[in-house]
Amino acid sequence: MFGRMTVAAVLVCAATVAHAGDKPLYQPVPAWVKPAPPIDASKLGDSDPILLVMDQQQRFEDGQVWIYADMAMRIASPQVLTQAGTVPLPWNPGKGDLVVHRIEILRGAERIDALAGGKRVTVLQREQQLERATLNGMLTATLPVEGLRVGDVLRVSFSVTQKDAALHGHVQSVAPLLSAPMRLHFGRVRLLWPKAMDLRWRAYSKLPDLKPVTTPDGYNELLIDLPIAKPADLPGDAPLRFRPLPLLDATDYADWADLSRDMAPLYRTEGAIEPDGPIAAEVARIAAATADPRQRAAMALETVQDKVRYLFKGMDNGDYVPQSPAQTWSARYGDCKAKTLLLLAMLRALGVEAEAVVVNTELGDLIPQRLPMPGAFNHVLVRATIAGESLWLDGTGGGSRREDLGDVPPFRHALPLREAGSGLIEMPMRPNARPITDAEVELDGRAGVLFPMPYTVRVAVRGAQAEVLRVVAAQAGKDELDQGIDAIVGSFLNEPETVERSFKYDEASATAVVTAAGITYPDWSKENGRYRLALDSAVSSIGFSPDRARPAWREIPVSSGGYADTRVRTRIRLPGDGVGFDTEGDRTLPATLAGVALQRSVTLKDGWLTLDDRSVTGIAEVLPADIPATRAQVAQARGRLLKAIAPKETPPLFLQVEVARRSKALDPILAVYARQIAQHPDKAESFGDRAWFLDRIYDRKGAIADLTKAIALEPTVERYLWRSRLYSALKDDAHAMTDARAALEIDPGSASAVGRVAALLAEQGKRDEALAMLAERADQGGDEKNNYVSSQATLLSDGGRVDEGLALLDTMIAASPGKADLLNSRCWLKATGNVALDTALKDCSKAIELAESPASILDSRGLVYFRLGRMGDALADFDAALEQVPDMAASLYMRGVIRKRAGTAGGDADLAAARMIAPRIDEDYARYGIKP
């Protein structure tokens, strides 16, 4: 950390007195202070603001700043009482004093002195930011206010003073400017300085035209009433320089060059390295290793980064003054100032031109708007010049290597500290030599496009994130580390199941490397007759919808966000050596899109599809004039996202299963599930995951076996109902009912369990009992009422009471017209009951218009056409349904029936497929009077 001036340190950001001490003083309010208006606590009510008074007055003189603060808070609730019951007053005893003027309670007309009887604040002797590697020398005085109660007003007046020898008689300060909608009874910021002092001040919010006035004793006085007007709204994607700081800066530095000259002597390195000392030995080691100045710079930076730990030391005038290189090397710790001075000394001894530069790591391009003062910056680093190229070397960073020397930190502006002075210089933004996150993903899709794919992943992370991962890996337990790795892998794959994980820190490349293996579930979807898989990892993440409708916003550029740099290389081993596979969408990308730098390469060769994407944000903006064209460019790019396309002749899943079984292509997938179970035999999810896959490949007995183990570990409604359905498919109705009832016992309110039990009761010939159960639940109302009534209608119709079932649906549709699922149910009942076929067509056709995915409705209408004898129309609807859902057993079955009756090819294959998917489908359609 460099010397920092923050809004959080509202009342201690700058102050002065010559006699600093670590014990608070108790003195009257200084004579130069203008008192705030008195408070009549007896007239306050709930409509009054909680913060009644916020008065801050600052006096600048003889290189010192005295900040006086007067605050009054209404204790409006128990929560406010808890927060305000202990008064904290922080200050830096190395720079000045804490002077307590008043701590009192106002209760009606009564004034209670909280310091009466010799009460004094308690000084806490501890570093409050030690967990952030910070020794700042700050102390905090606290006072628990005895007797404070809801309804009181707490009033605190105190001063903090500061005089910093490192500023050589200059002054600087920051005052917070509270803005509306915050309410105050009285608020003020007051600056006071001698007429002979050239004090400059600047506010970054819009204020009235303010001018200092001269006081009777010859001081300049500036007054600002609080709260100031609410800052103008800004779009969320506006660059930082357009965002007003809620601050008032004040300083007597003339310009940036004046500040540069004043601070430059702090980074002189003459005599900083003892000729026979350990730093000289390190310099000699580097010099002997190489004569290449770039390699020398890389080795010196690596030494400072890796051999000296970070610790901010703001004590003993350390806010701006770095400790000596000898002390830094001996202690093996230092902050950015200490590391910069050590690196400067080493580089200069190695013949590399270098200088210290100060930056702000948070404000970026807002810095040029601020007044020149040390508090405008919070970090210092080295700018080296080699072969005419600027190299920005940060000793507090980590993992920088030779290839990274050309990287530019995203700080935008820097102030070189030079004896001759300097203005601000720009730090040009460009992508780093190496991505911050570099992922390599390999998928084995040889089994087929509709199966899970075994995967391996390697993710290399650099910079600060690598250091975080390194610490986590060293300190966390195995479970916590595994969860962290899973989170990283999950950002690159769809629902991965991971069975191998490892982490290591690679010293040579200074990267944290995560590797993992398992299976993932690529989301292939059928569009326009072919299976497609979205591959894009760059354009899909770019959102560009800037709002510049307001006249005041029309000249504001669009930021692409903070700096982020990710490369993802995905390799997919395709089925059938990739024959017939292709891609659609953009195989190349523009150099920049919406301010994001992009790179892409795509190859499809030797059975492998490879995509290499890199995207970098935070290095460019979109100018206002370019927004319309950029919006269109992004929309076009998002409409051409890269996708893999499977061959036209790719068979549906049920056909792929047979081929994969014969070729043993499913063995690698099953091996991953087996490893998952071996690693976690006590987790129901391990068995449930494999049961899902076995069910998907129609190994129902295997799925039942895994579900039985999962249920033994963790019984749930879903698992019991799942196993019940599998038992039904195997014609084991007794076990199916046992599981259905077990699910209902776990959750008597489960509509799925109720419907399952009712359906099984009906199949057992207990239709009236099933209908009574459904009717009872429907009568109770609730969100599931329609489902219960719909199930009633189906059971009535299947039992030959079609009219009663339709009457129930008519009532539901009348109450909720325009619902596609209800219209489809009515169409289906009419088709299976072979009644009212003309209106059935209308119901299905309207439902198709309303539905987003009408495959099941097309199947219903196909059955209506079949009943009407319109076989061509029926086949068209069944084909259309299967185009959307290729493994829809009902449409396969009916298409097989039609083909068999017509004597055309494919009938037997369709029926066989339907029976594999739904083994009891013949029984279902026999109830409707339909047989092949």
UniProtKB/TrEMBL annotation:
Top-level taxon of origin: Bacteria
User: Residue limits of the DUF3857 domain?
Assistant: 62-218
| Domain Transglutaminase-like intervals | 285-359
Q: Which Pfam families match?
A: DUF3857, TPR_8, Transglut_core
TPR repeat segments run 855-888
User: Can the keyword Transcription be found in this entry's annotation?
Assistant: no
Keywords assigned: Repeat, Signal, TPR repeat
According to the record, the signal peptide region is: 1-20
The answer on whether this UniProt entry bears the keyword Phosphoprotein reads no
InterPro entries documented for this protein: DUF3857 (IPR024618), Papain-like_cys_pep_sf (IPR038765), TPR-like_helical_dom_sf (IPR011990), TPR_rpt (IPR019734), Transglutaminase-like (IPR002931), Ycf3 (IPR050498)
What's the protein here called?
Uncharacterized protein
Q: Which organism is it from?
A: Sphingomonas psychrotolerans
